[in-house]
């Protein structure tokens, strides 16, 4: 009975810890999982809206498309640590240069810059609040790239993180006060006895 109860508590805690997942049709707030060991993650996202929606923001590296990125959607790329330059759509000149560290999560937002003839996609480094406080839809299977996390992979990673026991930092050792010592009383100075006068020898009588 105790094992069944513990299992029910674990399942309930996982359900609470893992938030509602975004889908292709339902926008939700997205929690980005911790990168796999020795890897980094780059979160590409693009705000929803009709203006500039026909302009591609698909991220690419060295001319190779990484994933699609329609308005209101996001893509979490698992990348190797080191230097990378990502460009958006056809604007390969104005890429964003990153030096990824193991375990790091970098947020990159696609913005549409107004041009003379048409808008131009531009990648800007963003803050996690720019992404985590908004609602996003996930990509369709056709829009996903080979190293982009799927909805199922995100859900599995978050569940695994929630199942890990919390690490409690070790308490700092309590300093033991040194025992109190009584003040040392100086011994009274001793007064030297006065020197006795030397005895005078009496000459012998003749």
Summarize, please.
It contains three helices and eight strands; from the N terminus they run αββββββββαα.
Give the structural class.
Answer: alpha+beta
CATH topology (level 3) name of the domain at 37-152: Immunoglobulin-like
The count of helical stretches stands at 3
Strand order of the largest sheet: 4-1-7-8
Q: What's the total number of strands?
A: 8
Summarize the structure in words:
Helix content is 17%, strand content 24%. It is elongated, with a radius of gyration of 38 Å. It has 206 residues and is α+β, with helices and mostly antiparallel strands. α1 (2-17) packs across α3. The strands form 2 sheets. Strands 4-1-7-8 form a 4-stranded mixed β-sheet. It has helices at residues 2-17, 128-132, 151-163; strands at residues 40-45, 59-61, 64-65, 74-79, 82-88, 91-100, 105-113, 120-126. The chain contains 3 helices and 8 strands; from the N terminus they run αββββββββαα. The longest helix is centred in the N-terminal third of the chain and has 16 residues, at 2-17. It has a domain at 37-152: Immunoglobulin-like.
Structural descriptors:
alpha+beta; Immunoglobulin-like; 4-stranded mixed β-sheet; 206 residues; elongated; single chain; 3 helices
Q: What topology emerges from the helices and strands here?
A:
Elements: H1 2-17, E1 40-45, E2 59-61, E3 64-65, E4 74-79, E5 82-88, E6 91-100, E7 105-113, E8 120-126, H2 128-132, H3 151-163
Parallel strand pairs: 1-7
Antiparallel strand pairs: 1-4, 2-3, 2-5, 5-6, 7-8
Helix pairs in contact: 1-3
């Amino acid at each position: 009975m105790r094992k069944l109860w513990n299992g029910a508590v674990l399942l309930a805690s996982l359900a609470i810890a893992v938030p509602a997942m975004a889908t292709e049709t339902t926008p939700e707030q997205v929690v980005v999982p911790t990168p796999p060991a020795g890897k980094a993650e780059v979160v590409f996202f693009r705000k929803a809206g009709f203006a500039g929606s026909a302009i591609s923001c698909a991220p690419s590296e060295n001319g190779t498309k990484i994933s699609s990125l329609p308005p209101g959607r996001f893509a979490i790329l698992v990348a190797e640590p080191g230097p990378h330059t990502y460009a958006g759509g056809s604007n390969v000149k104005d890429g964003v240069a990153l030096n990824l560290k193991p375990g790091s999560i970098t947020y990159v937002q696609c913005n549409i810059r107004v041009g003379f003839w048409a808008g131009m996609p531009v990648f800007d480094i963003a803050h996690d609040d720019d992404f985590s406080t908004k609602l996003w839809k996930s990509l369709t299977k056709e829009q996903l790239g080979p190293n982009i996390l799927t909805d199922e992979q995100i859900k599995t990673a978050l569940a695994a993180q929630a199942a890990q026991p919390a690490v409690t930092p070790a308490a700092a050792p309590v300093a033991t006060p040194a025992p109190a010592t009584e003040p040392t009383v100086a011994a009274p100075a001793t007064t030297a006895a006065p020197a006795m006068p030397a005895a005078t020898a009496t000459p012998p009588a003749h």
